[in-house]
Design a protein that fits this description.
There is one protein chain. The strands form three sheets. Strands 2-1-5-4-3 form a five-stranded antiparallel β-sheet, sandwiched between helices. The chain has a five-stranded mixed β-sheet with strand order 7-9-10-12-11, with helices on one face. Strands 6-8 form a two-stranded antiparallel ribbon. Helix 2 (45-61) packs parallel to helix 4 (88-108), helix 16 runs antiparallel to helix 17 and helix 19 (458-475) packs antiparallel against helix 21. The longest helix is centred in the middle third of the chain and has 55 residues, at 175-229. The chain has helices at residues 2-32, 45-61, 76-85, 88-108, 113-116, 118-121, 123-128, 130-135, 138-162, 168-171, 175-229, 248-254, 263-266, 275-278, 282-291, 333-379, 385-409, 421-439, 458-475, 506-509, 527-537, and strands spanning 233-238, 243-246, 296-302, 305-316, 321-331, 417-419, 442-447, 454-456, 481-489, 492-498, 541-547, 551-559. The radius of gyration is 52 Å and the shape is rod-shaped. It is α+β, with helices and mostly antiparallel strands and 579 residues long.
Length: 579
Amino acid sequence: MLIALKESVLQVLLAVISAGFFSILTNYGDKKKVWAGNLLPGPHQGILYLCCLPAILLCSLFQYQPPYGLPSNLGIIPLAVGVMYGTRRTSFVLAASALTGVLIIAQSIEMSPMYVGTAFILFPFMLLHVKFFQRGTLLDKKLVIFTYVVADMLLKALLPLLWGKQNISVYIPDLLTTFWNVAVGVLASFTVVSLMHNSFEKLTLRRDVTEFTSKYLIEVDKLRQVMDLMPLSLVTLDSEERVIHMNKTMLELYRDFDPYITLPEVVGRPLNSLYVFSASPVVNERVAKALEGEAGADFINVSPKVFFSSFLPIRDKHINQTTGVIIALQDITELETLRSELGNFERLSLVGQMAAGITHEIRNPMAVVRGFLQLMREKSPDSLSHYYRIVMEELDRANGIINDFLSLAQNRIVEKEQCHLHDIIRELTPLLWADANLRGQTIELKLEDHVTMLHLNPKEIKQLLLNLSRNAMEAMGEKGVLTISTHEEEDFVELEVRDTGPGIPPKQLEKLFQPFYTTKTKGTGLGLALCQSIVERHHGTIAVDSVEGMGTQFKVRLRRTIPTYREHSETPVINSIQK
């Protein structure tokens, strides 16, 4: 009896070892990403095969045949588990491998195949119950395996009786041993099924967790990409006001204050340690309110920039608490600058309209005054003519200022026509030569042969060229050289006016085109502003390049519209007149 007990316990261990190894190997193999479906098709079929086949063979190898009663062999349990949990291909491969091994073992230990091969008689019936087993509950699975264990033992008991290998009178006295083997088989089958069920539940749970984690990481990556691509500067804080994440826009903004900082260095730092936020006291108040669940917005001034900031609470719906804050910053520095300039422009526009109206009305009484001065001059003695001349020159100067101011203030549409820039230059050349002779200066014309005709207003271009040339002459001393040149560059015709004067300091260059800014004693400061206005009305650009001690060059670029050329047979014109 004790021997039968020992052998039964050994058979239980050998049968249960299949489920134990399956649990261990699936857990280890899933971590190493080695096992899944590598040996046989389907998930973990290779592990199932490797665990069940040795258990079947070991149960047959250590089978115990008592003098009386049923033999002790629980190989039916790993066989039934392999068939029920495996695919059709796994079932056939396992059954064929196990049957071959069992027959070899039976022959080597001189045991009748009738005892070791009964489980394989039940194999076709097992295939019929696979779908029921896989869809059933845990109790259904236990009952299915238990049924096949009992059926296998009945076959082991009935086959010797049917074939006359055993006397029934001898079989009955050892009935207790038979019932013991049945009870052990039931216990072993329930244990194996429970272990296999737990193993598959762990595999399913691990697979679901892996899929969920993968989807979560993908969504997190998408969210971060969206945050990085947004034009807003975003900062995410936890409940302790520490930085969780900062998008690229915010990081680039912060690098204006700390050029070498990186994202890992920012994450985990308190918000008040970041200069952008510590510089504004309103931030702490808004963040505290956001952590209480109140969203808000405010302006943050961090010189020289202005930000519109939004403070949004992050809520966890499961616990109904605020777990963090999102701060969104929008740089509105340019918008605020434009708004301020727009206000100034509106005020200046109103002042300009008023001034234009006033100056226009002033010209009429000035004309009357000048007319009466001329009459008084004719009737006055010659000793007073000097004073009349001074007064009339000042009136003419005031009238010139009014004309320039009106030209600058009026945003009128000019009429343009197809004309050649060289014609305008040659028309003004005698007047410029006359001024140059009086000053003892030289004029050089360098006009390119083939220059496109332009859509211009000749009157305004004459005024532009005259202003630039006279400014250059006034800036030069005696024997200075004024150079006027033209050439084409890509889609533009360039007009250059260069002098050999003392040059302009860099500080003055920035204010050169501002109205009423002048360095001359009797200058009005409207000449270059008027030049810029004329060029802009012709959709061109004007630039100045000056080096102190070497002279100044004004470059006007006018876009060509029609590719029409003026052919010149002569060589480039270079005219020089000296005093």
